[in-house]
Amino acid sequence: MKRLLLYIAPLLLLASCSSYKYHTTKIEGTDFSQYRTYGWLPPVDSLSKSYFDNDIAQANIMETANRELEARGLTYSKDNPDLLFRYIAIVNNKNRPIYGGYPFGPWGFWGYNPWMWGPGWGLGWGYGWNRPIGQERYRAGHIIIEAKDRRTNRVIWQARGTGEVRNPEQAINKLPEVVTGVIEQLPLPVTSSR
């Protein structure tokens, strides 16, 4: 039983991980604690086929972003805010490799594999036998949020959340989770409960 748990636990951990990836960049040396207020620029009109160009998606993005920014001590201001935020929502087509190879044999799908999570025979992937045999197309959704210093008119921070979009309605419902993950990349600590 313990051995079975050793095999299942890592799989459950991987399954519970977010299917979105987050990336961020900023101007190094920027003191983000100097910013107290924020405002919004109009969203950038991407030339992609966007699932997010509707009132529900825009409300999910803006309401979540405002809540997350205010939890980090920023206050919304229409007049002369310190930071100007804007978002870009994109859905585009991407390609990824399809892997195949020899499913049976000493290093194949069923057989001894020293790179498994433990010794013995069982399900594993063969090193060197699995290789790309083609490409498949999929839709990738991106939510990009950037912050511009109003005084210098320079973008000082940008973060992106990216994930596969299989269903438009589900993608719109996941927007609060994605926007929260993007704003978590902002180098300002949470100062109040959300």
TrEMBL record:
- InterPro entries (UniProt xref): DUF4136
Q: Record's superkingdom?
A: Bacteria
Residues folding into a coiled coil are: none
Q: Which Pfam families match?
A: DUF4136
**Swiss-Prot/TrEMBL keywords:** Signal
| First and last residue of the signal peptide | 1-21
| Boundaries of every DUF4136 domain copy | 29-187
Q: What is this protein called?
A: DUF4136 domain-containing protein
Q: Which organism is it from?
A: Parapedobacter luteus
